[in-house]
Each structure stands twice: as C-alpha cells, then as structure tokens.
Write a structure and sequence with these properties.
Blueprint: H1 2-10, H2 15-27, E1 32-35, H3 37-44, E2 52-55, H4 59-65, E3 69-73, E4 78-83, E5 86-92, E6 94-96, E7 108-110, H5 113-118, E8 127-130, E9 135-138, H6 142-148, E10 150-151, H7 157-163, H8 167-178, E11 181-182, H9 184-193, H10 202-213, H11 218-227, H12 230-234, H13 236-244, H14 246-258, H15 265-276, H16 284-289, H17 294-310, H18 326-344, H19 349-361, H20 375-380, H21 387-402, H22 407-415
Parallel strand pairs: 2-5, 10-11
Antiparallel strand pairs: 1-2, 1-8, 3-4, 4-5, 6-7, 8-9
C-alpha cells in the first residue's frame, strides 16, 4: 500500500516541492504528514490534484521555517508555503470550536493528529501519510471504508452535518465521483438533515452541483439528490417535475449514465427540463437563484433558445444547430439524440451509434478535437464574412467529426460550394 502511494506521489510534477516542505518541518523537530484527499486519491490510484500538509507546527513556527509564506487562514492554522514555485497548503492540527453559521467554526484550538482526524467530515478524507515511516495513519477506519467503497461520516453523522450543513451535499458528490455507497447511518442522517442546506450560501451549493455534474457517476449522484430530498431544497422546481414524471426521470438518468463525457451543469439542468416538460422551461431562473456564473447563464439561454428545434424529429435537426459551435455543439447534439430516445421510449439504437461515433473521435483527454477550420480558412476560399460563414464553420465541424474529413477535404467541399447552400 505504501509503495503504491509513493509511486503515485513521485509521478506528480509538484511532489518534489511538497516533499521538501514536509522534510523541512521534520528537520526542525515538527511532525508533518500528507492529509486528506491526496492520501485518499493516492490509495485509490486516482489523479492527484492538491496536496495538503498537516503539522503540529503553529502558524508562527511555520513562518520561521520557510522564507515565503502567506497567512491565508492564520486564525484557523492555515498557511501557504511557497516552495520551488509551488504553493503548498500547510495546516496545523486542530480541534474546531462551535459552528454558529452552519459552515465555519468560530475559532479553533490547536491539537494533535488524532484530534484533527476526529473533526474531519468523512473517514476516507481523514487519512494521513507519514513520509518518514512510509505508512498510512488511520484513526477513524478510513482505509477499511475505502476498501468497502463506503462514504461514512466521522463520528456521529448528525453532529458532522449540524456543524457544516454543506456536508450533506458533499457526501453525495463524493459518492458520485467515486461510485461509493453511502453508509446506512450516514445516509439516514442525510435524510434527516437535508432541510438544513437552506442555510448554506448559494455559491457553495452550486459549486458542489458543478462537481457532481462533472463526476463519472453523475446520474447516481442526481438520483441520490432526489431520494434524500436534497433536490427539494436546492432545486425545488426540478424536484416538482421529477415527482410528476418519475418514469421519464429514470430514463433521463440513463442518458446521463450513457453519455461519454461529463456534461456541464447548465446543460444537465436544461436536459432534465426538456425531458420532463412538454414546454420549454427556462432554467436560468434556477441557475440565477444559485448565483451561477455569466457563462453558465449564457449556456442555459442557448439551450432554451434552441428548445423548439431540439424537440424536432427531423433527420437534419443536428445540422441545423448551426448557431452553436465547438464543444457546446457536441453536448447539444447528444442532448437532442438522447431526447428523442427518452421521449419516444426507443431502444437507444440511434443514440448508442452517436455515442460510439463520438467515442471513437475522442482524444486521450476525453474530449473531441477542436475544429480544424477557422474563419481565415474560409476567407481564403472566397467565403465572405457574415452569418453564412458561421453556418459553414458549424457544418464543416460536423463533417469533421461525423465523416472524419481532413482540412483539405473540407476546404475542397467549400470551394465547390457544397457547404454554401
């Protein structure tokens, strides 16, 4: 187990800087360990992102050890150490004081590693890795839960959720990211605590929904959101639609499960609205209440505007989505294909062909290639600037994906005016 963690760590480009931070603290007589998500992901063989270091060194002591530090959360024991051009979060072991706002403790008390593990949210996030002994430190049964594929609250789940009310959504988001079950008592506590999420800032709620939507098992996460009644609090309009159309809801989740890529949150919500209603529902109201970004609102507006076209059964509908280009066009085309299958309760044959085609075109990053033609290419073959240029670019992108045509072949078709009509 330890050798597997070290292998994962050594493969990361930032690890040498993080390792130096740990070693410097140890050289000064402090305990320093990797903590939380990076340990969990290393044990699971997942891609590592941020590294968190936990230590018994106080913030002022961390400042004395390192030349460059930033006290981003000094009162809570959190410092940023800049080492080798890499920013490493270093947090002092702590116990949390009372939570008054349902999200943050009023103050903290510096403590030891065991106490620090006991105040964390879920057992799989309360693991530490000691570089000196090359061993995992597990005070709460996190390793066992990783092996059992369980999301379990540390200690009493009701207390954990009362302290930080966002944790009820986080539990479901982790389940969707990892395809883990939620431990029975933790799940019952979620179902008891769902109403408390109303106290959490909208910006924090939507951030968790974005991560859920971007998860490999997003359909599982959305089903848990409905079953736990969290959807009733976070997205009451969608919850009402689901209550009325449970059969279509299940088929819409199947689509998300089958999709070959993560679909952005605005498109997921628009997809649900499109499937579950007979008329267009503008999900911008939902997103606006959750303080969505301007880009997310624009994407929702794009789908709302195209809704009548997406409801068409015409064979050429996909090609008529000419006002959309690039990656958004792919998502919208998939939504259209899926919509026809869901509403007509077909056998998913055409949709599966569509998925197979797009999957064969995807690169190692899981994305489709960028359009190979640009506006200047069209200018070179006599296409005048204007609305027609946008339509030709969109049409050429579809041909690039569907027929795997090259730049030369596409320009040849445009030169022969095959794409100008």
């Amino acid at each position: 187990m330890s050798s597997a963690i070290l292998t994962r760590l050594n493969q990361h480009p930032q690890w040498s800087s993080v390792r130096r931070v740990i070693e410097r603290l140890e050289e000064q007589g402090f305990q320093a360990v990797l903590a939380g998500g990076c340990v969990r992901d290393a044990l699971l063989g997942r891609t590592l992102h941020d590294f968190d270091v936990a230590t018994d060194a106080r913030p002022d002591q961390v400042e004395r050890v390192f030349a460059r530090t930033v006290g981003v959360g000094r009162d809570f024991g959190v410092m940023i150490v800049v080492e080798g051009g890499v920013s490493v979060e270093v947090a002092t072991f702590r116990r949390d004081g009372p939570y008054r706002d349902g999200r943050h403790p009023e103050h903290v008390l510096f403590a030891n590693l065991k106490e620090d593990a006991s105040r964390r949210d879920f057992t799989i996030n309360a693991l530490f890795f000691d570089l000196k002994s090359q061993s995992v430190i597990d005070e709460v049964g996190g390793v066992k839960d990783l092996k059992s594929q369980l999301i379990r609250a540390v200690g009493q789940p009701d207390q954990r959720f009362k302290e930080d009310k966002l944790r009820v959504i986080r539990a479901i988001r982790f389940a969707a990211q990892l395809n883990f079950e939620i431990e029975a008592e933790t799940w019952r506590a979620i179902c008891r605590s769902y109403g408390q999420v109303v106290q959490v800032a909208s910006e924090r709620q939507i951030e968790e929904l974005r991560k859920l939507s971007d998860s490999p098992y997003a359909s599982y996460g959305w089903e848990l959101m409905f079953r736990s009644k969290l959807l009733e609090v976070v997205l009451p309009e969608l919850n009402e639609l689901v209550d009325q159309q449970t059969r279509l809801w299940q088929r819409s989740l199947f689509f998300l499960k089958a999709a070959p890529m993560a679909i952005p949150l605005p498109f997921v919500l628009s997809w649900f609205a499109m499937v579950l209603t007979d008329g267009a529902v503008d999900v911008r109201r939902w997103l606006g209440r959750l303080k969505a970004s301007s880009i997310e609102l624009e994407r929702a507006q794009k789908l709302t505007r195209l809704m009548p076209l997406l409801r068409s059964e015409k064979v050429q509908t996909g090609r008529k989505l000419s006002e959309v280009d690039g990656e958004d066009a792919v998502w919208i085309f998939l939504l259209w294909q899926g919509f026809l299958e869901v509403r007509q309760e077909k056998d998913w044959g055409q949709f599966n062909k569509c998925l197979e085609l797009y999957s064969s075109r995807m690169g190692p990053d899981g994305r489709l290639p960028s359009p190979i033609l640009k506006g200047e290419d069209l200018l070179s073959v006599g296409v005048e600037p204007g609305p027609m240029m946008g339509k030709i670019l969109a049409e050429s992108y579809w041909l690039q994906i569907e027929k795997n045509l090259s730049r030369t072949e596409l320009l040849g078709l445009i030169s022969k005016e095959k794409l100008k009509n």
